[in-house]
Structures are given as C-alpha cells and as structure tokens.
Amino acid sequence: MNVTAEVLAEVALTENEYRLIVEKLGREPTPVELGMFGAMWSEHCGYKNSRPLLKRFPTDGPYVAQGPGENAGAVDIGDGLVAVLKIESHNHPSAVEPYQGAATGVGGIVRDIFTMGARPIAILDSLHFGPLTEPRNRYLFAGIVGGIGGYGNCLGIPTVAGDIYFDPAYSGNPLVNAMCVGVARRDELMRARASGVGNLVLVVGADTGRDGIHGATFASVDDPEKSHRGVVQVGNPFLEKLLLEACLEVLKTPHVVAMQDLGAAGLTSSAVESASRGEVGIDIDVALVSRRELGMSAYEVMLSESQERMLVIVTPEGLDEVRAIFDHFDLHSDVIGTVTGDGIVRVRDGAEVVAEIPARLLTDECPVYVREGRESIEVAALRTADLYGRSDLSLESDGWLGPTEALLRLLASPNIGSRESVTRTYDSTILTNTVLPPGRGDAAVLRVKGTTLGLAVKTDCNPRYCYLEPFRGGMHAVAEAARNVSCVGAEPMAITNCLNFGNPERLEVYYQLSRAIDGMAAACEALRTPVVSGNVSLYNESGDESILPTPTVGMVGRLADVRTAVGMGLVPGGTVYLLGPLEATLGASEYLAEVHGMVAGSPPDLDLDLEARVQRATRGAIQRGLAAAAHDCSEGGVAVALAETCIVGGVGGHFDLATALAANVGRLDATLFGEAGSRVLLQAVPDGEAALESWLAEERVPFARVGRADGEDVVIDGMIETTVAAVTGAWRSALER
Amino acid sequence: MRFAVISFPGSNGDHDALMAVEMGLGQPVEPVWYRETDLSRFDVLLIPGGFSYGDYLRAGAIARFAPVMESVARFAADGGPVLGICNGFQVLTEAGLLPGALLRNASLKFNSSWVRLRVENTDTAWTEGLRLDETLRLPIAHGEGRYFADPETLKRLEARGQVVFRYVDARGEATPEGNPNGSVDNIAGVSNERGNVVGLMPHPERAFEPLIGGDDGLKILSAVLRAGVATAVGGL
Residue A229: is its pLDDT beyond 50? Predict the structure, then answer.
C-alpha cells in the first residue's frame, strides 16, 4: 500500500503510529485495516491522551453495579434495580450542523442506555455557547436546542435537566454533552461482551449509508468548521423509538449474549470492542450489510456512522425468535457473521478477506501518550490580579452601581437567567415519572414506578473556575453537582463525566486536563460518588483559541422516598437559613465577569469535609420533613440565590445579611454576589425553626438565619429593595432578548 | 371496562396511557399494535400521543391508513367511546372521525407546560359527570396543536356543542394569555356529533396522581366509566 502523508492525515494517524501498526501486524495494513486503526486509535475511541489520567478516578464503591468500560455505568438503587447512566459529547458535529449534530448526540446516548437493557427515563444536556450577541452563536444555539428537543420529544423520553453556559471561548466551538439515565433490573443488565464461538452477529436497524465516515477521527481534530459536512450524520428518532422497544423486548429472551450500538466508528468499533471485551474473535462479511446506496466499498461500510443501528450477538437457536421480534417492529436485521475463538476481527467482502486484525491490537494496544503539562503564565497572572481595587457597590442614589441594580443585571445575564424558554421546548412530562420538572429544584426528580424510590439528576461544571484553577474547578464541578442533588433531598450515588478540553498536545491544555481530573477525583473520593462512565472530547478549538476547560459532571442521586423531595421555591412563612461559610470571594465570580468584565482571581476554596457535612445535613433535613425548600448558592452568590428562591416560590422575602457583611470586611459586592463552596439556602417548614436548628447543630454545620419568606417585596436590609415581579421580570428576560 | 391503547410505530404516549388506566383507574387495559383488526374484546379505545410514523408528511397523516384504523372507525360508528390524545387527536382528524385540523403552534415552537382547560360540554362519553365550566389542569407537549377549522365548521361545532374543552387563563377566561398554541377560539378538544369520540391536545393520561403534578386527568379518563354505568351493567 502506498502510504503518503495525505493518506495518514485522512485517517488522523502519525507516521510513528503507522510504523507501530506495521510492526504489530508484521506487515503493511490493507486500506480497510488502516481506516479501522485510524478510527480505533483516535482519541474518541482509544483515549490515547487521556487513558493514564482517567485511571486516577475512583471507580468502585459499595453501590457500583457496572463501572467504566461498558456502554454505560450502573449503580444499585435498591429493590433489585440499578440506575444506568452515561454522558457523551457531540461537540464537533454540532459545530457544523447544529440541529442534526445535537439530535444524533441524543440518539447515541440513549442507545448506550438501552443497549444495557435499561429503559431510558431521562435525558439531560449540558450546553456551552459563545455569546448570543453574535449571529453565528445564535444560529448554533437555536439549532442545537431544536435538535435536542426534536429527537428527545419524538423518542418519548423526557428532557428534564442540564445546564447552559455562555462564554466567548465557545464561539465557533459549542459544546453539546448529552446524558441519559435509565432503570434496569440488576440481574438483567446486558453487557457488550461477545461470547460463544459460533454465535451469530446481527446488524439491526437503519441501512448503512455513506454518512459520518471518519466521524470518530473528525471528533479528534482541531477546527471542525474546516472539515467536511459529509461527516455529520442525520438522525431518525422514529426509527430509534422502534429500535428501543424492539431491543428491550429482545433482551427479555434468553438468546442475546451481547448488544452494542453502532456509534462513533460504526461497525468497526462495535465489532472490535465487543470482540475485545469478550476476548473472542469476530468474522463478518460486509457484503451482507444492507446498504442505503450503491457502490459502497468495504472501507465505507466499516467506517460509516449511519445512525440507529445495533450490533446484536445471538445464539443460533434463538435467531428465529429474535428476528421475529425485530420484524414485529418493522426493523430490518442482517446476519453478517459469527463469533470465533481466535481473537481476530476478520472482515470479508464476499470472497475476499479485506481485514484481519487481532482485536486487542485495535483496543488495548492503542498507543498511549503521557504528555507534559505546564500552567500558562497568563492564567497564573490572572489569578493574582487585584480584585478589590475596584469600587465596591454604592448605596448612594447617584453612585456608579447600586446593589439592587446589580442584582437585576445579574439575574438578567445569560449565565444566571431563566432557562424556561429552552426547557419549555423539551417534553418533560412524558413517561409520567417527573416529580420535580426543570426549573423547580436544583436537580430534576423522577419517581421509579412500582417502588417508593426517586432519582435526582443534574449536570454541572463552572468552566471559569476550571480555567483559573483547574484543580479547584474540578473539585467544584463534582461538589456542586452533588450539592444540587442533595438540595432536593437525594443521596449522591455516582457520576458520569464528559471531559471537554482543547488540544492536549499543548502544555497548558494538558495541564488543565490533568489537574481538573485530580480535583474531580479528590471530590469524588470525599463525597463517595465514584465515576462509573464517561467520555473525553479533546481538540475543542477554533483557530488558535481553546475552549475553557469544561469537565462536565452528570450526577445521579437516590431518594429512598420520592415523596420527601423539595424544590427551591420558598413557601410563605418559613425562616431561611444559610448553611456553610459566610465569607465569599469575588475571584472567578459571575459578578466580576458580568459587572467588571474581569475573568480573574482564584475560584473559592473548597473544604471537602465541610462540603460533605453541609450536603448530608441538607438532605437529612429534607428527608426528615424539616425543610420546605433548598437551593445551592453558586454563581451570583447569596443575593442571586435568594432572588431565585423567591422567583420560583412566587413569594417575597425579608432578609438580613449584616453578619455576612461583617465576615466580608464590609464589602457589599462580596457579601451579596461573592461566591463560595459548601453553601446552601435552606428554608424551615413554617413553625419548624427549632427542629431544623437542632438538626443542623447536631450535624455540626455552620448556619445563620438570613430571613423569612412573605409578601411581594424582596428586601435585603440596608442593601437591596425590590419586588418579586421585578426580579422575576429580569430573570425571565435573560434568554429572550 | 376493558380499555385498548392503540399503538402505531412511533407512538410514545402508549406507555403513559396504559399506566393511567392501570394505576389511575384500576381497569384492565391492553396495548393494541397497529396491524391488529379485531377490537371486539374492548369497551373503550384510547389513541395515545407520540409521533406516529415520525410525523413524517404531517402529524397523523400516515397513521390513518394503518390496518387498525378501519376497526377504530367501525367501533366509533357503533357508538363505542374513543379518546384521541395529542397525536391521537391528530390521527382522528386525519381519519375524518373528528372535525378540523391541527396546525403548527403559533410560536412555531414545541410547547411543554401545564395549562388550564375549561369543560364546555358535559354531554359526551368523556366529560360525563364533570361540571360545566369546571377547570382542569393538564400538561401539554406538542409542536402541532393549533386547532383550526373553517368558520362554517366552527359555527356548526359551537351550535351542536362539539367544542368540549377550551384553554383558559388563571381566571378561567378564554383569553390569548390562556391559549398556549394559538388554537382558534381557544379550542383544546372537540367531539363528533354523537359525543362518543373526543380528541384533545392536552394529556389527561399524564395527570393521574398528585406526585407527578396533578390528577385532573383521571376526571376525563374515568368519565367513560360513569357513562358506562348510566347506560348499562353495574358491577364496575
């Protein structure tokens, strides 16, 4: 084979990697083999830059039923059931074709869940965009939100939570991280491990077309806009719905030994990964794969990323029964090969063998790069900037900016304001499990039918924290997601994560990746939330600009009794408490960015022991019926959090932050809008103050009374004076401008 | 009473309809796949929401040709109670079993929220026992729910009491603020002349217990039981 630099560029392999392939095979690869290596050794499939770093995550714990390495992770939630969870990026396709890119991102993650034998019950999305003041970003925003709703709504799975974040660093490289959560019986979990020599390999679902060839390698190169549109796939949620129902039905029979969806790198990765996991071989004939178009080569069939396809390994005796189920759902299935005992992935095109590679070579023996990281001098300098040299907010009527004005401005800012204009376009009530819908609580809560159990789900990350101090940022991402779940009364169980970073070959990006992982790992240990699944998306850059480091955390929590869940909306009459530290910082805060245009300072310190205690006290209070509402205090500080609890509750409040002002050496800005970890606003049920206070004292958490909910005014004594209507109006306007 | 939930490829509200009948009403219920043609064992038909045939071409336009639809039409002609919800409503209008049509929402966006409905006629199989002007709180989730009919048809519907539900605001008035999708005259649901076939865009089957936001949906779903008691056997 004539290998030129161009040929290698097309499969995104380096010359050294090519030499390694020749050495391992003991010969030159065929074109099909080279394409398979390119896909499997991409960052997307092979994790070649991140694998050593990912080993630092804790992945085990008493509740883990399935850790990383399968299509999705699973945790035991009791009653013989597991929650199955996974998050995955679809950043690059969404940058090129936002609607389809986001839609197929949802399709892919949902397949990962039902492949495990779980019924998907919730979709979440973590989205990052450049400012909507730029038309291109507005186009991406509308397309991506449209694609998520278009696919999920049709599929009939509620989209219940997520997060949306804006920063200029995402212009041209938006992030679309889709998460799905499902429920299965623990003893019925399916794995993607091929086994049983002589078992049959079935491809089910859509016919195979030329769409998405090289999608996996495309996801691992810089600047998606330069690349070709043809690599983006088109989704068909109607077909996926049939596939979902059929696969769950088929899994009830005893005939299926493994199931794997055809995602990135299509037939190549699904065949190779299921063979490699099961330590067997697979022998397939691409001529038997139904095509969408004429004249497709073996190379194209092996690398196509046509959506809505599944690889199913069945016993020969069960074939007829399994096919009858697929037929019932009008789904096409082809027997394309068999499981063999030689550990080799053999691909035929009719009579000709076009690829013959030991499965291990493509997976376990993917080269791994341990790179060097070094912090950017520029970021280190930003961290030490003088934050308090700027004027504090002014209480004078002719001052430069008053606290009330600042509050309204923050509430109307894109990173804080209401997400309702987006969440309203997602079906959130289908499947009749939604107890806390989007926007009502810090996390969404779903009941599990036939039990008293509830699941709380949320995604989170503060990219600005991660940019200014990736270790702390990583800790905060996990801690905040866990805090959100605790604020509805749930016990955080496990996380899935999506590590979105720039080009790891750059020293400062590798540093971010490595440090953020260390921070996340530390928080996962302290909060006992192991990582059970995840995905890595590197090379998120456009031009010379890298995105902010964005290690998105998807958290699942468990409520023993779903009826105890509370939202964030205050109820009239109850006293409101602030749990956690009174002292806050303007470092890396939303206030500093929005009001002073500064991205600087250190993100708040995080004491993981205190964090764990605050969270335990919060969910304990909720489970015992002592709390009427709870809300995490994060972006925008206490003042924004208080306003949000009033808005959602539809009630005013009279608050006093004098002690907090003293703790913040008299700075109004830090008191009202400064940020800190481990802080929760907790409202006692009316007349239940004594019981709540004694519980909090018993739990050894610092707390302060900050006021009471009532009336239609929102007042923070001596600082802020406004109304529920005014704060609601500002907050609602954020994304509707 | 034995309920059937008719499913087409792409229906996704079938699961909720089954649950609402089973958990909410405690009645026997069975899913019926679009290829079946014998509905003789059922007393009630529910046509659930979703995206039958992906809503390709037009919502409900392909489902009306499914084999089961001939039996549905016969069942309706014999006076059997049929409720079409969301996409099921669209299917029934496409099949000519209900008047009017459903267009894209005026906002051009999918709308998932809770709305208020006012009961406009209690003389149908699906509103029996409800109070006239009673308001119900139900979720909606649709992109094509703007009810439309020509002025002649509208006049006829109003005269014959075929407008069964109207969207209303918090004060119970049929105002533009209360109208989530731009439906003509705030119409949320209609019936056939006989009153045994009703279609509506909101989802009664998603509101069958307070834990998930409310149980007003049961008032609609159980009406058929009361209607059944009035006309025939006891022992329900």
Answer: no
